[in-house]
Amino acid sequence: MIDSKIYGEHVTAWCPGCGNHDVLLALKDALARQDLEPHRFAVVSGIGQAAKIVHYVRGNGFNGLHGRALPPAQALKLVNPELKVVVESGDGCSYGEGGNHLLAAIRRNLDITLIVHNNQIYGLTKGQASPTTMTGHVTKNNPLGVFDQPFNPVAVAVAMRASFVARSFSGFKEHAAATIVAAMQHKGFSLVDMHSPCISFNKVNTFAWYKSRCKEVSHDPANWDEAMKTAMVFGEEIPIGVIYREQRPSKETLLPQCRDGAMYRRPVDMDKVAAHMLSYA
Amino acid sequence: MREELHLILGGEAGQGLDTVAGLLGKAVVRSGRHLLTVQHVMSRVRGGHNNFRMRLASRPVQGPPDTFDLLAAMSRESVDLHRERLAEGAVILVDGGWDMAPEPGLIGVPFAELAARPVFRNVALMGVLGAMLGIEADILRELVADNFRAKGDQIVSSNLDVLAASMRWAADNTPSLPLPGEGDSVTRLAMDGNQALVLGALAAGVRFCGYYPMSPATSIAEGLAQVAVDMGVVVEQAEDEIAAANMALGASFGGARSIVPTSGGGFALMTEAVSLAGVMEMPVVFAVAQRPGPATGLATRTEQADLELVLRAGHGEFHRAILAPADVADCFHLTHKAFDLAEKSQGPVFILSDQYLASAVRSVEPFDLGSLPSVAEPDLSDADPDGYHRYDWSAPVSPRRIPGHGKSLVLADCHEHDEQGHIIEAADIRVRMQDKRLAKMDVLQAEVLPPVFTGEDESDLLLVGWGSSGEVLREVAGILQGRGVKAASLCFTQVWPLAPETFLQRLHAAECVVAVEGNSTAQFARLLRETTGFHIANSVLRYDGRALTAGYVLERLAPILEAL
Predict the structure, then answer these.
(1) How many CA atoms lie within 13 A of B502 on its CB side?
(2) CB proximity list for B102: less than 8 A, separation 6 or greater
(3) CA-to-CA distance for B354 and B150, rounded, in angstroms?
(4) Looking at the complex, does the CB of residue A267 fall below 8 Å from at least one CB of chain B?
């Protein structure tokens, strides 16, 4: 195992006490446990407090636009299957703005890992409701409380038979790191719904709130029916751990043109271009 | 003997007219003649009225034809719709089963006899037309056999029987309408603009295409998809246009040359990624095939009205280049060049085409692949990886390295950033980084394609066009010169940036300058005025969804010519 110091020490723009610090530590720990040198992986993100993590990990990074972490990450994996690709974003980015991309990414099943820092609130824009904010939660922009039903990412992912679905809590550091390792080791699309409290704008879903509710799952993650039942549980009890897992080939392994490694190294075969051109004669 | 022959094939979508037009066009090109086939299709899969207009000639042809020597009507509606466009003595082929009053030139083809089932009627029509044009039977047979080979021997042999019977019938019952001029044995290709664009991308080493289907750009992605495994290209149909464009940037980050084919409506959604390419300094090629707007407009028709959209797309200030091919060969060469420019300038480069150019098939010489210039490469040195900064500002264009290649770490960021790519808000760094990006204009300016001028230096009438309108202008100028008018044309195949020193003199030297564009507000003339101060007061504009033709332009030039 390499020393996680290799990923650097950076001054962050996060509030002291923010759950993101723990996710960052867990990520570095997970990278170190896999002996991943900085040039062997890329972290891709969108916008939000969580998305800034790209700037706090020494490695390759692509900090794109709001909701758009998954599309470039998937393309990166397609054109260079040798790179480990980790996507980090928040609940607003992945479950709101980028919701359609999440559904498509689950269907594509490329071998990438999505870690969603889920704090059930918009932190960067200072306290508006997010897709996972619970019904009744009073926020700055919902003085009467949120009327909308919260999005259940885990249930949606299991329903779509995402090949790896897990939930963790940043406050349980070992659990968070181990879950990220399991997700990254899984061949195929992996989702880690990582609850990570926002201490400034979410006074409901706090460290203590998660800590008293998060309980390790006990069902067989290969059992879809059991996984579906577990995925529907969220509230007084929050099941954490690997909720669902199945093995199927990831998309980049199914595409013959992706089998020879990074595409940028391949020279243009002008004889083939010529043959293709002459097919129009 | 005629120098040209104009055919129009009309009927409903789903009748297989595109197959006839495609195969017949190929046969004409294999017979050593020149060809242009323009599609007019409705935005529906079956029914409606579609037509294919073919211009066959003994010399290279330019724009679409205005009148026709033969109408092949596969629906009765087609006869009425096109009657007034027929030249004197034109032949009208109709279904012999229709109850139609006899008239000169009208010939009833016994489709019911020639084609046992309606599905064979397109091949029957091809046989009749092939025989009338005097195309060698072997050429037709080979094309039919190739076209149906995948469906099995039985289908091939049935189609060949229909072809033979139809040719025999036509030999006895139709007038001869021989192909213009002598055929030559030079190998030419029959290809549309999008197919040439695909070839240009392949020759430039394209590795990734992100797209969401939209006419008339879809055939670019389809063309790439068909050769994706063989050529080593990933073609990903994204969940939406936003994903397609953002994917292309991710692929480009990974070192893959990337293209995003789309049309105006799809491109509107992609503009966030254009801006992202601007700040990330990411090479990417957008191929925007224009169709009429606003919004969904006329989905299967043509227009040149997205110049300003493409020119301004994306918030903030950053540079781009916009190439506007005038013909099929340009589609190939400018696409190849676009990839080079994107890498050299590390930013977005656009190919601004349109439905007419994208789908019109024409005869073209095979491209000289051996003489193509090389395409710029990223920096694959990995020298001093610890000292590597993605946005090193010692030069406007920083070395672009590829993640995973060597130990250099690459950080691409959407925020304003420092040399390493980290978020900053410092005023001085912001200014320096913005200045660095803007300085890349010199890279683009050094490679600007000058407009193509034809005609006399001091002309009475100078026609100015861009993209696909350019070649119609050349044709119109030629016709006017034949009539004794001192006419000239100036055709832009790059519309941004502009290099006024390459053309401003021409504008000043002409007695009268007329802008000819496929839009309703003369967008390019406005851009010329903004860039050079030169005001083009006269314009001929077309925005009914149809391509400019020489006849259309000449008619509207008449009052201007009279005033000269």
Answers:
(1) 19
(2) none
(3) 32
(4) yes
Which of B204, B234, B250 is the closest to A71 by Cβ?
A: B250
B552: tokens are 């259309």
Min Cα–Cα distance to chain B from A158, Å:
20
Question: Quick check: A157 pLDDT over 80?
Answer: yes
Exposure b/e, B219-239, CB count within 10 A at least 16 = b:
bbbbbbbebbeebbbbbbebb
pLDDT > 90? residue B445: yes
Length of chain B: 564
B4-13 sheet: strands from edge to edge: B106-109, B86-95, B68-73, B4-13, B47-57, B34-40, B361-364, B189-192
Residue A86, beta-bridge partner list: A43, A113
Q: CA–CA separation, B540 vs B30, rounded Å?
A: 36
Average the pLDDT over B285-295 and give the result. Answer: 98
Of B369, B370, B414, the CB nearest to A63: B414
Helix (H) or strand (E) holding B460: none
Contact B437, B318 (CB under 8 A): yes
In total, chain A counts a number of residues equal to 281
Give me B185's structure tokens.
């044995």
Answer whether residue B415 shows pLDDT above 90.
yes
Alpha-carbon Rg for chain B in angstroms: 26
Assigned token pair, A267: 């020279």
Q: Per-residue pLDDT tens for B121-136?
A: 999 999 999 999 999 9
CA distance A200 to chain B (A): 22
User: Which pair of structure tokens corresponds to residue B83?
Assistant: 């009657």
Percent of chain B topping pLDDT 90: 94
Rounded-to-integer distance, Cα B92 and Cα B6, Å: 12
Q: Which amino acid is at B51?
A: N
Question: Which residue bears the tokens 């861009």?
Answer: B466
Q: Dig out the tokens for A37 from the structure.
A: 């040198």
Closest approach of B226 to chain A, Cα-based (Å): 11
Give the full edge-to-edge strand order of the sheet including A190-195.
A214-216, A238-245, A164-169, A190-195, A113-118, A84-90, A41-45, A60-63, B411-413
Question: How many other CB atoms are found less than 10 A from the CB of residue B359?
Answer: 24
Note whether ipTM > 0.85 here: yes
Indicate whether B1 pLDDT > 70: no
For residues B263-285, average pLDDT: 98
List, for residues B83-117, the tens digit of each pLDDT value. 999 999 999 999 999 999 999 999 999 999 999 89
Residue B455, amino acid:
G
- CA proximity to B224, closest of B203, B243, B240, B242: B203
Closest CA to A20 of A88, A94, A102: A88
Q: How many CB atoms lie within 10 A of CB A177?
A: 23
Q: Token pair for residue A131?
A: 């897709």
**Is the four-CA dihedral A34, A37, A39, A42 of positive or negative sign?**
positive
- Residue B47 reports pLDDT greater than 80: no
**Sign of CA pseudo-dihedral B555, B557, B561, B562:** positive
Six token digits for residue A270: 């002008």
**Would you call B229 and A257 a contact, using CB atoms and an 8 Å cutoff?**
yes
Between positions 214 and 253 of A, the ones with CB within 8 A of B are: none
| Tokens of residue B121, six digits | 């009627």
